[in-house]
Every structure is written in structure tokens, then in C-alpha cells.
Design a protein that fits this description.
The structure holds two protein chains of two kinds. Chain A contains five helices and 37 strands. By secondary structure, chain A is mostly beta strands. In chain A, strands 26, 27, 28, 29, 30, 31, 32, 33, 34, 35 and 36 form an eleven-stranded mixed beta sheet that branches. Classes of the chains: A mainly beta, B alpha+beta.
């Protein structure tokens, strides 16, 4: 070893020190080194082990937030909530193609103040303030506030437990859908059509002060479409812009739409009409676009009736192939046996159509619930298209977005409407192990009334229950609240008096939502004997209250503004 | 013995031996005089006579002299006039001498000294000849063999004092001057030069005489064969400080007398500069006597300008050679500065006092391999820092993270410090951090160059840290151990990563951790940091425990200025050392360690009162602040590699860990026990960061660098211990795995330097080339006007340029691993350094949090309206540490937050730059708003409607002229309600034409004034006298503690100074 380590003076010191210490060395107590070495090795090893466990433990992974996945009613105690109804016309004339009426359901125990702002495609917006009583529903006709060729409506409420939907009514029919509770930077509509006899419109609603810049692209059966006119569309702030998709993507049987917002935020509705010609079923359909792709989608109300053709459309907006499995859970497994899952692959950016009725796997006349899952977790968007043609009792077409969530409390604002013959509430229990108890209540005229026989109805594991509600044409502005002991899925199907049918997902309450975990249901369990327990309930005008609530009636005071 | 008027010179016509008069000047001699006289008498030179000049001795020496040298002549001076003036008497009293041998009365000449000197004078035609001076008691040790000097007269010895005489200096050679112990000079030369300078009564006359001899063209030689022993007994007759004073002033006098005009023009300013530096350094060290001597030297010479001028004129008559020829005989450069460097690099003594003590020149010193290694290591480390920071110096320091800009005026910070009102968040009536006062004060020191000050503080933290670790490792006793410790700490990327991410906190703890650890370790008094359990190491001075506590408190207080958590770091360090002691079975110092740490923290806390009290009341969050890992997944691997930022990646990033284990494997005695203690600290830091990164802690913790910097210092010191063990302990082992492990550790150490070199390549430590300030510079223009407003900053805590608070909002706060959604505010654009510590979020600021949580929960789509009463005009969400594409860290997009903000009906996007999302609040109102006199303010609690003031949007600004910090003026044309969006307090006072307006708390947190019309209205935050009193007390406490440390240091330094002077033979 080199001894010349230090300058002479310090070297001398060090050398003396070394000599002194070596002289003492024989009496030195033996050094016990293992405790600290073990501590170090053990500490580092534990660190790696703990980290590995943490990374591999799926329980530690947080589920995605439910905000912005679909229209959601704010929780009780919320200071305010805002709803956006993107598409519709407000001409005030009977000939309006999609005259818009807003249904505002206040399921809370407090009277609330509502500001309804109607924002046109051109010109200034107008606002009116209303009061909506506790546990009541307020219907607002958009044209009563502002008349315009196209409008978007913002509903601002100073409280939670409010659900808002809108009904469009025109010469081709009527349609009901939930309004959106949040804007988004991306929107997806898997199913649309521009074939002869139909018209497809896209309402881009920007209720914010800044302008939004939007790109709209399409996937049709002949490939991708990115019309130049639909690139960098400027949607002015506080305005709605309606695109005529039919004029750009002409005569395609299937059109899947993707809306990408480059700056700002918008709300998107798809509005389709079919005039009954060219082998179409006369109908008007408003479909809220899906703001986000998810790996699982649920559908509660599957129809396999004669005259009803149902297809599921799956859009894959990602850049990876999605391996899709559609599981059908029919109501009468004991009779018809299991339905083999549909398995397909959807290429990146493409869509796929699954025709459950034409395939023959689903027996005719048997209802079902369905789930579409991306087995490789590639996010997808799925909706269901049901075409009701003779000999079906009602005719029309419905396009219903699936639900990526489950909840224990669902609100159906438009359970009854003028000219509605009947509306059906379908509750599906997706659990394959546990039954749930479900309670259905009407919310109207300041009262929440449990429907007769609908308190704590037991829905078996993997079962469904459907309740047909008839209001006798008295239009009492009935809304429905569905509560359950465990998470369920709720849809509503509305048959209009003269013609037309509408289907829509109910609106979940924020504080009761859970994101549907993928892979919950396996096919072997899905097919356990599940039946749809159906019943029809007539709601008299003086419905008895199971749990009295303060009497309140909708009233309104109007103001206007820009 | 009678003293003849003239000495009798023997005539030796036959032998032609030149007559020599030995002139011995004496003054109150001790018992050595007889030996000195006897040595003269014993000279074999045949033509010599002895003249003893008694310079005012109190006792009569005649009998003593006669007893030993009966032939000697004695001349009495009535009083002590000093050596030179006394010796000059030979000019009048002696005739016919060929040479004079002037000698002290405490020299013992070898019998042939006179013979050798005279022969050499003839042989070499020398004018002045000196001999080899050896120790009185040990003639084998050399004291001097001639002396060199630089242009200012500072001495540069040719031989090291105490050097063993092995005839290594026995060659005759020219020297600049010969020591005055015994000087042979030609008599004619002495007469021509006018003898010794009569203005130099003592010390320095030898330099002066030789210098003038050079000027006169005479050679000055040393003849080492002429050996004489020197007792250096002057110290027993003259005070040390007096001697230094005399020496300093006489050197300067000689320099002035012996130099020509143009030489003086060059040399005197240089001498002045060196003297000034020495003066400052002495003052800093508390060596006031030394400083006084420097001042005295210049003052003394200034008062004798005429005398010096006359002497110069007299010398000019005899000038035979030019100054340039004389200069060639002098030492190049500054021998004082060289000695200073020797002190730092050679002996390890970093005190200026060693300037005069070293015996070898700088070059010779550096020939020592260890000293050269130190120099190389320091050049490498400082070069690394300079090269790595070069673009920061040239392009400026970007305002990234906490490195917010300093205000252009130092007074801005000082006024905030004094005010008692903090404007972070929505404001609060609370004490401001002490650093505002310090930086404000420093701003005046640098004459307002605040940007430069900021750059120096940031970059200077790196050398501060490595200097600290250098001092910390000093007691290890070996140079290599010290170098290894230095290099490891410099290369562990904690400091680099802190700069890269703009974290004052990490940088400050990196800079101060070694200093804090140093005081704890020295406070333990365990070997080698003290004398318990072994010999103290080099540089260890015995100081009282109180000194250690106060010193630790001061260092901790400095660190806590920007990182309050430093007051937690210190006890954690101490406890880990205690725990480590338990592991090795040594508990004897536990109480001292804990006591020093506890005392130090207490002192630091007191030094920050009243701010520190407000930290306690603000809770843990106020103490720690809001931090994130910047989106970096702090996995166990990255923690062990200190990879808290862009530097420290595998595989090389791993090397320091195994290197630090060496001391545990081969160390013995204190090297092992301290290595264990240090490793406990290392592991503790790792564990805390790991646990925090896994989210297992419910409490907030500071930035990871803050927790890892002490571990880094401990690991570096453990590595140094490994090196010490390699030198001391390893030779005692038989060859085996330990030797192999040691070699591997050495190789790994070399490898570990490479990443640091790579990190320096960017020249800016990975910081972006620009910052958020540039795109946001024109933020006012985006909204128009110069109205007062706030900017609300939202995003990951690591990306915000403002210290904020955690935004706990489940719906939007999941930004991904290693992130923390936080919020903070600034005024009218980018924040400055005053927001570097957020403080408590209670009080008014909690309302800001409420508003954000309401919006996050979907409770409103009109967040702008909720923020309007708070004066929030813009919301800025940075996605990176700089605009794209300049960002250098991870991009963190708070998707849910942006979705929430995008969903607000009264917020509109403002295009600024990529990577920065800016929203303008359409409902904004100025922080000082002018409203109608009958304005009704809601409660501010409950529903959205009760939190909104409908009249605020679009309101005009009240009192638009800012006259100081929280002081505004203007006129009020009409009766009105003046709304002030600051934390409510009675200390807010609105005065209109001299009459106070009534104030009320509104919205549960802010202020409103019922104002009548008036031409002169002022709105001020009235700082209470109690606040000013507390500030004054704080300053007094700081000064008292500094004074205590200063006095303690002065005492110790004075003792060291005295010891060094006593060891300096040149003064004797």
C-alpha cells in the first residue's frame, strides 16, 4: 500500500495515528458486523419486495373516475348542477324537424332555482329562470325561451339530485334521451346511417365563452372518411353548430362518428331521421354521444320480439385491435339454453356490427340483457340499434348507448310524456351471485310514491325486471326513481301513442355509481336461469303516496337575456 | 570594563587578515549571553574584535561580559533604541574595520563562522554574507539558510523550519537577504548605505539592509558552512503581537524605500490588495489583532511619507542596478498568497496565519502526491460545477419550480418581511418567513443586482455543500479519505436533480446537510470528531457544548429559512446516530448527540420567531409544504440511486451504494462504528422516501431531495471512512476478499464520477432553456388594463412556479403516480420568491380551496363566479416545467382538472403557449373593487349564491396607485363600498381625507369599507408595533448569537494565532 498519502505534516500525524492504532490492535474487541449488514440487505430486499407486491396487486389500482363517462345526476347536497342538451330545433312551429322540450326532474327534497339558457346556432342566447319544486318535474319548451333553427340548451340548477332529459319531436317521430352533464374533448357515436330515406345530423354544442375547434371523422362501410369541411370546425362560444353528415358521407348504411376537440370543449348529440321511404322505418332518433371509450358496456333491455331487429355496433377508436366478446343473457335459459358469446375482433379505428337477431343464437321472443367487453382491455364504444317494424306493435328505430357504469340509484326524468302510450322501465341485475331488491317510485307533484308492488322487489342474480307504466294520457309529468340494494342497470323504453318508439339509458346518481369492472360476468354464469319479471302499472292521477312528501308544483318565472 | 570611544583594530600587516568587528547588540539578555560571548571569543579568526552594544538594558552587563570576553568593548546606550539604530553607532565609533559581523545576543557561533564568512566574502566578492542558522538546542534542525522575499518584502524561506540538517542546503548561493541573527557586511558598503535604517528599530532591518545592498550592486550570499545556533529569545523580551506589527510595517517601508517609482506603481497596489484580502479574512476569522497590524502597517508608513522619501533619495545616490535586476532575485508572484495556498492545500490548515509559517514554496508543496491529489480533486469538483452551470451564468437562471425570480428592488422583500401581512393564497395576517429579510438585505449588499444574487445563491449551493463535506471529512485523518468523501458527495446527483427541478428545498438541504452533520458529530465528541474513545482527528478543536449547540442552531436556522423541515432533519439525524450507536454497542455519546440536536433545533426555532411560531400554529402542512415527485415513479431502485430527477440512472447510478459498504466490511474501531451510524441514517432516508412514494403515509412529506440529502452526506462520509479503513485497517488483514472488495470499490468509485461529468455537459443541469415567465409576460395584455388581480395556479406541485397547498378533491386530484395536485396564487402574473414558502392555508385561503372543491365535485359550472370575489382573473395550469418544446421534465396533464375547468361556463381559454393552459375568468373583479354604496355582501358560506357578489364582475378598481407593499392611494369620486379581496383584518385601514372609513368582514374572509367621497384616500395594512417589536427582537437574537459565536471563535483563533506566531522563527 502506498504510504505517501498525505503531506509530511499530516502524513506524520496519520502515520503516528496508524502506528498507535496498530499498536492497540491486539486488544481490540472483535467487531460484530452482521447486524448492520443484515439490516441493510433486509431493508433493500424488503423494499424491492414491497414494491413488487404493490405493483402486482390489482386491488391497489384505483378504478377510473366516473366523472364524464355519461350523464350523471349530482349527489345530494351538491351546490349546483349543470346539464347540456345539445341537439334540437326551437322554431315553435309544428313543422319543426326536432322541436325540443326539456324535462327537468328534481328528485331532491328542496325547491330549486333553474336557469335555462337557450343558445342558438346564430344570434344571441336567451335565459329564463324557473323554480322547480321538490320532487317534481319541470318541462320547458325550448322555443318558449328562444326561437331558432337549431338550439342547444344549458340547464343550471342550484342543487343536486336533478336529472335532465330532452325530447325531440318532429314529423318523423319522437325521441327521448338524457342530456349531458359534462362537456368533453372527444365524443363517439358508433352507429349512424346515411342511406336513402334517412338523414344524419351532428349537433356540436359549445356553451362556453371561448370558441371550440373540432375535427369530425367517420368510419363507413367503405372506409374512413375525413371530409375537409369537417376539419377544424369552429364552434363559436355559446352557440350550437349542426353538421349534416348525410351531405358529406352519402348513402352509407353504417357510419361511426368520432368528434375530436382540438381546443375548448363541446357536447355532441346525434340526430337521425328516417322518412319511412326506401325501406326505412319512419323515426326520429336523438342519441347522446359517448364521451369516452371504455372496455365494458352494458345493455339492460334486449328485445327479441317478432319484428324487432337488434344489432350491436362496436366502435374501436383506439390504435389497437380490440378483441370483443358480446355476451347475451336471455331471460329463459331453462328453456332455450345458453347463448354462445359472440366473439369478434375490431380493427383499430374501425367498427363492427353484431346482428344478434339474424344470427339465430338468440331465440325469438325472448328478452335479454347484454354486455360487451373488450377482452384485451382496448377501450371501445358500443351502442344498440333496435329497428321495430311490422308486425311489431310499435314501429320505429332506437339507438341506445350502452352504460359503462352500474349504480344503486337511477332517475328516469321522462317516464311519462304527452302522447306516450306506455313506458317501460327495465332493471337488470348484472350480479351472477347475488339477488338485489329494487324499489321503484314515481316522482311527481312534489311527491315520491312507491309504485304499488314495487317496493323491495327481488331481482334474482343475473335477472331482470320490467315495469310498464301507463299514465292514462293525463300527462302528469311523472318521473321515476329506481333504487336498489346493489348496483343495477336501468333503461327505459317509451312507446308513443300514434307511432314511434324511444329507448334511453336512465340517469345514475353520482354518489351511487360504480364503474362496471371488466370480466365480472362469465358466460357460464350468465346463462343461469334468469327471467324478466314484467308487470304493468297504471298510475292514477291521484296516486297514493307511500312516503308523503311536501306538495309542490312546478312553476316558473321567466327572464331573458343573452 | 571601560568602553573606549573607538575600538582598537589589530594590524596584521604580515598576514593581511582583514579586520572584522563583531558587533553584538544586546538588551536585557538572559543567561544565554555568556554562551554567545564565548562563541565569539572562541572564533579562530585572528583579526577580530568584539564590540558589545548594550541597548538600554536595565542591569549593568559589564561584569558578565568581562567574565567571558575580557577583551570585548562595551558601549552603553542610555535607552533601548532597537537593534538597527544601536548597531548604527559603529558608523561613528569604529574606524578601520573591513567587515562588520552584526549579531544578536542569543546566537552561538561555530568557531569557524567568522573565518568562513570572510573567506566567502572575498571568494564571491559578496557585500553581505550570512550563515546557516540552526536551533539552539538541537543543532541538527535548520531554522534558516538565507531568505527569499517577494516584491512586497514578504519572506519566502529557502528551508523549512525544523528541517533535519543533512547538508542538503550546504551550497553557497545568492539569497535575497540573510537573517539578522548574524550578518557579515563589508564595512564600506555599510557606511555607504548609511547603516541600518534608523526608522526600523527592530525586526525587518535585515531585509532592509540586504535589499539596499542589492540596489547598491552588492551580492548577498549565504555560506552554509558558517553555522550558528539561534535561541530566538526575542519572544521573551517583546510581545508577539508587537513583533508582527513591526515586521509588517517594516516590510512595507522597505518595499517603498527600495523600489523605484514605476515599480511602486505596480507593486504597491498589489500589496494593498493582498493586505485588504488578508484584512477581511482576519476579520472574518476574528483575528482582530492581526487585522489591526495590517491597518497599522499602512497607517504607520503613510505617516512617514517624507521620511521614506528621504531614505529613497539617499539610496538613489548609490543605486547601481535597476529594479528589474533586483526583481530577478525575488520570489515570483506573491509569497503570502502562495503561503495561503499552501496552507489550504498543503498542510490542511486553512487559516491565513499559516501564510507565514510554511517552509516550502507552493510548487514544492504540490509535489507532494497527496496535496496534488487534493488540488486535482478540487479543480475537478469546482470545474464540474462551473462547467455544469455555464449556461446558467450566460443565459440566466430560468424561473422553474421554486426558483422564482427575485423582485427588482430589495426593499420589496424587506417591506414584506416587516409588514406582518402575507399575500400568499388570499392573504393572511401572519409573520413572513425570515428569508425575505435575508434576501432583501443581501440585495443591498450586491447593490440591487437581485438576478445575480439569485443565480449565485442557486449555483453557490453546490460548492457550499462540497465545502461542507470537505470540512466534515477532515477529522478522518487521511487525505485520500477526504478526497473520496468530497468526490462522492459532489457526484451523488441530489444537488443536480434539485437544480434541474427548481427545488430550493432540496438544494438548501444538500448545501447544509454536511454542515449540520458536522456539528452533531463534533458535538458527540466521539473520536475522531472528539477525544472520547480515541484520538481526535485533525482540525478538531475542543469547544464547549454550548458552542456546538449554537453553531448547529445557526446552521439549521439558515437552512430552515427556505426549508422549515430542516428543523426536523436535525433531530432525525441525531436519532439515527444514536440508533447506530446502539447497534454497535456504543451509547456513551447518545445524550450529547441528542442534546446538541435538540438544543440546535431550539436555537433555530428561536432564531425564526415569530415566523416559526406561525408554522407551528399552521400545522404540519405549513411546515412541510406541498410536494410531489414530479411524476417520476420513485421506485426503490431510483431511491437507492438518489435518482430524484433526471440524473442518477442505472447502471452507473448504482455504484455509490456498494462503495459506501466498504467501511462496514473492513473498518475497525471508530471507522466501523461511525460507518454503522451513518448507514443507519442512509437507510432511514431511503425508507422514509420509499414509504412516502408508496403512499403509505397519511402525512405529507417534503421533496425527496430533502430526505435524501442527509443520506447522501452520510453515504459520502461512510465512503470516506471506507477509504480510511483501506489505509489503516486493511494492511492488518491477510490477503482475501477484503482486498478484492476494496479494489472493486475503488473501481466503482471511479466509474461513479462519469454520470456527474455527463450531467455537467448540458451546462444548465437539465434545466429548460426558458421558463413559464416568457409566455406569461404579457398576461396583463390578455385581459387589458393594469388592475390588481390574482393568478390561480393549478397543477402538479412540482410544476407550479409557486409554493402552494394540496388540492384535495377526489374527483380531479388523481394525476398519476408521483404527483400531487396543488394550488397557489400569485399577483399580476408570475410569482416572485416571496411565494417560495406558502405557509398555512387556513383562514381566507381555505375559501379558495372550498371553491375549487365545489367545482371539482361537480357542484358548479361557474367556478369563475366563485373565484371572482377572490380577485382571480386567470387560472394557469402548467403541464411541464417550461413551455413546449423546452420542457425538460415529465409532462403531467391533469386531465380531470382540465375537464373540470373546461366545463366551467365562465372560464374561457387563452392561447399562450403549448404546454401551458390558461383560462380567463369572465366574472373577474379586481382585488380592490369599487362598488355601489348599498352593496349587499352575502355570507360566503353555504350555497353558490351566497358565495357570489353579483355586483363584482366588471367593477372598477379602487385606489389604483400602489405606494408600497399593501399600501394604496387615490381618490374616491363618489360614496361607495370599497371591496378588498384580502384576508380580513382590523389592521386594514382606509382613510379618506384624514378620516377613517368603517370596515367590516364580508364573505366570511374579506373586507369592505363604507367609503365616502374624498380627494385623498389611502388604504394600508397597518403593521402593529408588536410585530415590529418581534422583528426587532429577532434581529437582536441573531446578533447576540452571532456575537457569541464570534467571541468564542475570536478567543480560540487568538490562541491558535498566538501558537502559530510562537512557532514562526522568522519573527524572532
Amino acid at each position: 500500500m502506498n504510504k505517501e498519502l498525505t503531506p509530511p505534516s499530516r502524513g506524520l500525524h496519520a502515520a503516528r495515528s496508524r502506528r498507535a492504532e496498530r499498536a492497540d490492535a491486539p486488544v481490540e474487541v472483535k467487531t460484530t458486523r452482521w447486524p448492520i449488514l443484515v439490516l441493510i440487505v433486509l431493508g433493500v430486499a424488503l423494499g424491492f419486495a414491497a414494491q413488487s407486491y404493490h405493483e402486482n396487486n390489482p386491488d391497489a389500482q384505483a378504478l377510473p373516475s366516473v366523472q364524464g363517462l355519461l350523464p350523471i345526476a349530482a349527489a345530494p347536497g351538491a351546490l349546483s348542477s349543470t346539464w347540456y342538451c345539445a341537439g334540437g330545433t326551437a322554431t315553435g312551429a309544428a313543422s319543426g324537424s326536432a322541436e325540443e322540450t326539456i324535462q327537468i326532474m328534481n328528485d331532491s327534497g328542496d325547491a330549486l332555482t333553474v336557469n335555462v339558457t337557450v343558445m342558438p346556432n346564430v344570434g344571441d342566447s336567451a335565459v329564463k329562470e324557473f323554480a322547480v319544486s321538490a320532487q317534481s318535474r319541470l318541462d320547458v319548451v325550448a322555443s318558449s325561451i328562444l326561437k331558432a333553427a337549431q338550439v342547444g340548451v344549458v340547464v343550471e340548477v342550484n342543487g343536486g339530485e336533478v336529472a335532465v332529459s330532452h325530447m325531440l319531436e318532429g314529423p318523423t317521430g319522437r325521441s327521448v334521451a338524457a342530456c349531458s352533464s359534462s362537456p368533453s374533448a372527444s365524443w363517439f357515436v358508433p352507429s349512424g346511417t346515411t342511406r336513402a330515406g334517412t338523414s344524419q345530423m351532428l349537433a356540436l354544442f359549445n356553451p362556453f365563452p371561448s370558441e371550440a375547434v373540432v375535427n369530425v371523422t367517420f368510419e363507413a362501410d367503405d372506409g374512413a372518411r375525413a371530409p375537409q369541411d369537417f376539419e377544424a370546425i369552429v364552434v363559436p362560444g355559446k352557440h350550437v353548430t349542426v353538421l349534416d353528415v348525410s351531405g358529406k358521407v352519402t348513402l352509407r348504411a353504417e357510419v361511426a362518428t368520432t368528434v375530436s376537440v382540438r381546443s375548448g370543449r363541446v357536447i355532441v348529440d346525434q340526430i337521425q331521421t328516417a322518412d319511412g321511404t326506401q325501406q326505412t322505418t319512419k323515426s326520429l332518433m336523438v342519441t347522446p354521444a359517448a364521451p369516452k371509450a371504455m372496455s365494458s358496456w352494458w345493455f339492460a333491455d334486449g328485445l327479441a320480439s317478432t319484428g324487432v331487429k337488434t344489432v350491436f355496433v362496436v366502435q374501436n377508436p383506439s390504435s389497437e385491435i380490440a378483441n370483443i366478446e358480446l355476451q347475451i343473457r336471455i331471460d329463459d335459459v331453462a328453456t332455450y339454453g345458453e347463448v354462445e358469446p359472440f366473439e369478434i375482433s375490431v380493427a383499430p379505428g374501425r367498427y363492427a356490427i353484431i346482428d344478434v337477431a339474424g344470427d339465430g343464437r338468440v331465440p325469438p321472443g325472448v328478452g335479454y340483457m347484454a354486455s360487451i367487453e373488450s377482452k384485451n382491455a382496448v377501450p371501445i364504444v358500443a351502442d344498440r340499434v333496435a329497428t321495430h317494424s311490422p308486425p311489431a306493435t310499435v314501429v320505429g328505430t332506437t339507438v341506445t348507448m350502452g352504460s359503462p357504469v352500474l349504480a344503486t340509484r337511477w332517475l328516469v326524468p321522462a317516464a311519462s310524456l304527452s302522447s306516450v302510450a306506455a313506458s317501460t322501465i327495465v332493471v337488470a341485475n348484472p350480479s351472477f351471485t347475488d339477488s338485489v331488491t329494487v324499489t321503484l317510485s314515481t316522482v311527481t307533484d312534489g311527491k315520491s310514491t312507491v309504485l304499488a308492488g314495487m317496493r323491495d322487489v327481488v331481482v334474482a342474480a343475473a335477472g331482470r325486471v320490467g315495469i310498464e307504466i301507463r299514465t292514462g294520457g293525463s300527462n302528469p309529468q311523472v318521473s321515476i326513481e329506481v333504487t336498489s340494494s346493489s348496483s343495477v342497470l336501468v333503461e327505459t323504453r317509451i312507446a308513443f301513442e300514434k307511432a314511434g318508439v324511444a329507448a334511453a339509458l336512465a340517469i345514475p346518481a353520482l354518489d351511487t355509481i360504480e364503474v362496471a369492472p371488466p370480466g365480472l360476468i362469465t358466460s357460464s354464469v350468465l346463462l343461469m336461469g334468469a327471467t324478466l319479471d314484467s308487470s304493468t302499472i297504471e298510475i292514477p292521477s291521484d296516486a297514493t303516496t307511500d312516503s308523503p312528501s311536501p306538495k309542490a308544483s312546478p312553476s316558473g318565472t321567466a327572464t331573458t337575456g343573452t | 570594563m571601560d568602553v573606549p570611544d573607538e575600538p582598537q583594530i589589530e594590524s596584521e600587516g604580515e598576514t593581511l587578515v582583514p579586520p572584522v568587528v563583531v558587533v553584538m547588540v544586546t538588551h536585557d539578555p538572559g543567561d544565554w549571553l555568556e554562551q554567545s560571548l564565548a562563541s565569539v571569543v572562541a572564533q579562530g579568526y585572528r583579526n577580530a574584535s568584539l564590540l558589545v552594544i548594550d541597548s538600554g538594558s536595565t542591569a549593568d552587563l559589564e561584569a558578565r561580559i568581562a567574565a567571558v570576553a575580557p577583551d570585548a568593548h562595551l558601549r552603553r546606550m542610555p535607552e533601548n533604541v532597537g537593534f538597527g539604530p544601536a548597531a548604527n553607532s559603529v558608523l561613528k565609533s569604529v574606524e578601520g574595520a573591513a567587515f562588520y559581523l552584526f549579531c544578536h545576543d542569543d546566537v552561538r557561533l561555530d568557531p569557524d563562522v567568522l573565518q568562513v564568512m570572510v573567506e566567502e566574502a572575498f571568494r564571491s566578492n559578496a557585500g553581505v554574507v550570512g550563515g546557516k542558522v540552526v536551533e539552539w538546542d538541537d543543532p541538527t534542525r535548520i531554522l534558516q539558510v538565507g531568505m527569499g522575499a517577494d516584491k512586497t518584502g514578504a519572506p519566502a524561506p529557502y528551508a523549512e523550519r525544523g528541517e533535519l540538517d543533512q547538508e542538503q542546503h550546504d551550497a553557497v548561493r545568492d539569497v535575497f537577504y540573510v537573517p539578522g541573527a548574524a550578518t557579515l557586511i563589508r564595512a564600506d558598503l555599510f557606511e555607504a548605505l548609511g547603516g541600518f535604517d534608523p526608522g526600523i528599530e527592530l525586526l525587518g532591518e535585515d531585509l532592509d539592509l540586504s535589499w539596499r545592498a542589492h540596489v547598491a550592486g552588492a551580492r548577498v550570499l549565504v555560506a552554509p558552512s558558517a553555522r550558528l545556533a539561534h535561541l530566538e529569545a526575542l519572544g521573551e523580551r517583546r510581545s508577539i503581537d508587537d513583533r508582527r506589527r513591526l515586521q509588517m510595517r517594516h516590510r512595507l517601508r522597505s518595499s517603498k524605500v527600495c523600489s523605484t517609482f514605476w515599480t511602486r506603481v505596480r507593486v504597491i497596489p498589489q500589496a494593498a490588495l493582498i493586505a485588504f484580502i488578508e484584512l477581511i479574512y482576519s476579520i472574518v476569522l476574528g483575528r482582530f489583532h492581526h487585522a489591526g497590524d495590517i491597518v497599522h502597517a499602512w497607517w504607520w508608513n503613510a505617516r512617514r511619507r517624507k521620511d521614506i522619501h528621504d531614505r529613497r533619495a539617499q539610496l538613489k545616490l548609490h543605486r547601481a542596478v535597476s529594479d528589474s535586476d533586483v526583481r530577478r532575485l525575488q520570489v515570483r508572484g506573491s509569497s503570502r498568497f502562495s503561503a495561503f495556498l499552501r496552507g489550504q492545500l498543503g498542510s490542511g490548515d486553512d487559516r491565513l496565519g499559516s501564510m507565514t509559517g510554511a517552509g516550502r514554496d507552493l510548487v514544492g508543496n504540490l509535489r507532494s502526491s497527496s496535496a496534488r491529489s487534493s488540488l486535482v480533486a478540487w479543480i475537478a469538483v469546482l470545474g464540474l460545477i462551473v462547467i455544469g452551470s455555464r449556461q446558467i451564468f450566460t443565459d440566466g437562471l430560468p424561473a422553474v419550480g421554486q426558483f422564482a425570480a427575485f423582485p427588482t428592488q430589495p426593499s420589496t422583500l424587506l417591506s414584506q418581511w416587516l409588514s406582518g401581512f402575507r399575500d400568499t393564497g388570499l392573504g393572511s395576517v401572519s409573520p413572513a418567513p425570515t428569508f425575505l429579510g435575508l434576501i432583501g438585505g443581501l440585495g443591498y449588499v450586491v447593490f440591487g443586482a437581485m438576478s445575480l444574487l439569485r443565480t449565485v445563491l442557486v449555483v453557490g449551493a453546490l460548492p457550499l455543500g462540497v465545502i461542507g463535506i470537505w470540512r466534515l471529512a477532515r477529522p478522518l485523518g487521511t487525505r485520500r479519505a477526504r478526497i473520496v468523501t468530497l468526490v462522492v458527495y459532489a457526484c451523488i446527483p441530489i444537488g443536480f436533480n434539485a437544480i434541474a427541478q427548481g427545488r430550493w428545498s432540496g438544494l438548501v438541504i444538500y448545501a447544509f446537510a454536511p454542515w449540520m452533520m458536522n456539528q452533531i458529530l463534533r458535538g458527540s465528541q466521539l473520536a475522531p470528531f472528539g477525544s472520547v474513545g480515541g484520538e481526535p482527528g485533525p482540525g478538531i478543536t475542543d469547544r464547549p457544548l454550548t458552542y456546538r449547540i449554537v453553531m448547529l442552531g445557526l446552521v439549521t436556522a439558515l437552512a430552515a429559512m427556505l426549508v422549515p423541515f430542516a428543523m426536523v432533519v436535525v433531530p432525525v439525524m441525531a436519532l439515527t446516530f444514536v440508533l447506530g450507536g446502539l447497534i454497535v454497542g456504543e451509547v456513551k455519546a447518545a445524550l450529547r448527540i441528542v442534546g446538541v440536536a435538540a438544543g440546535g433545533v431550539a436555537v433555530a426555532f428561536v432564531l425564526h420567531v415569530p415566523w416559526s411560531v406561525s408554522l407551528l400554529t399552521g400545522g404540519w402542512t405549513a411546515f412541510v409544504g406541498a410536494w410531489s415527485d414530479g411524476g417520476r415513479a420513485m421506485e426503490i431502485g431510483s431511491i437507492l440511486r438518489f435518482e430524484t430527477g433526471p440524473f442518477g440512472a442505472p447502471p452507473i447510478g448504482w455504484v455509490f451504494l456498494p462503495v459506501g459498504l466498504l467501511a462496514l466490511l473492513i473498518g475497525r474501531r471508530w471507522r466501523y462504528s461511525w460507518a454503522v451510524r451513518l448507514w443507519v441514517l442512509v437507510l432511514t432516508g431511503f425508507a422514509v422516501v420509499f414509504v412516502a412514494a408508496q403512499g403509505w403515509l397519511s402525512i405529507a412529506l417534503p421533496a425527496p431531495e430533502v430526505l435524501l440529502a442527509p443520506s447522501a452526506a452520510a453515504l459520502a462520509l461512510a465512503t470516506g471512512l471506507g477509504m480510511a479503513a483501506f489505509e489503516v485497517d486493511l494492511p492488518d488483514y491477510h490477503f482475501g476478499w477484503r482486498q478484492i472488495a476494496s479494489l472493486l470499490a475503488g473501481a466503482a468509485l471511479v466509474l461513479g464520477v462519469l454520470p456527474a461529468a455527463a450531467a455537467a455537459a448540458s451546462g444548465r443541469w437539465g434545466m429548460p432553456q426558458t421558463d413559464l415567465a416568457r409566455p406569461l409576460r404579457n398576461l396583463n395584455g390578455k385581459g387589458g388594463g393594469d388592475d390588481p388581480y390574482r393568478v390561480l395556479w393549478l397543477g402538479d406541485a412540482d410544476l407550479l412556479p409557486v409554493a402552494g397547498w394540496k388540492l384535495d378533491a377526489p374527483a380531479i386530484d388523481d394525476l398519476g403516480p408521483g404527483t400531487l395536485l396543488s394550488y397557489g396564487t400569485s399577483r399580476e402574473g408570475m410569482p416572485d420568491v416571496s411565494t417560495a414558502i406558502a405557509g398555512s392555508d387556513s383562514g381566507a385561503t381555505s375559501h379558495l380551496l372550498d371553491a375549487l372543491q365545489i367545482a371539482a365535485a361537480g357542484g358548479t359550472s361557474r367556478l369563475g363566479a366563485l373565484l371572482a370575489p377572490m380577485g382571480v382573473r386567470f387560472i394557469v395550469v402548467p403541464l411541464g416545467n417550461a413551455p413546449r418544446p423546452f420542457e425538460t421534465g415529465p409532462t403531467i396533464v391533469p386531465t380531470q382538472l382540465l375537464t373540470m375547468l373546461d366545463g366551467q361556463l365562465d372560464l374561457s381559454n387563452v392561447d399562450v403557449a403549448r404546454g401551458i393552459i390558461v383560462y380567463r375568468n369572465a366574472q373577474w373583479a379586481p382585488t380592490r373593487a369599487l362598488l355601489a354604496p348599498d352593496t349587499k355582501y352575502p355570507s360566503g358560506e353555504g350555497s353558490v349564491a351566497t358565495r357570489v357578489v353579483p355586483a363584482l364582475p366588471g367593477a372598477a378598481t379602487a385606489l389604483s396607485q400602489q405606494t408600497g407593499f399593501q399600501s394604496f392611494g387615490g381618490s374616491l369620486d363618489n360614496p361607495s363600498s370599497v371591496y378588498l379581496a384580502e384576508a380580513g383584518s382590523q389592521d386594514w385601514q382606509l382613510t379618506i381625507d384624514g378620516q377613517p372609513a368603517s370596515r367590516s368582514d364580508v364573505l366570511g374572509w374579506s373586507n369592505a369599507f363604507d367609503a365616502r367621497a374624498g380627494s385623498h384616500a389611502t388604504l394600508v395594512f397597518d403593521t402593529q408595533w408588536t410585530r415590529l417589536g418581534l422583528i426587532g427582537a429577532e434581529i437582536v437574537v441573531w446578533l447576540l448569537l452571532l456575537l457569541y459565536l464570534f467571541r468564542s471563535r475570536v478567543r480560540i483563533e487568538a490562541a491558535i494565532d498566538r501558537a502559530e506566531l510562537e512557532a514562526e522563527g522568522e519573527l524572532a
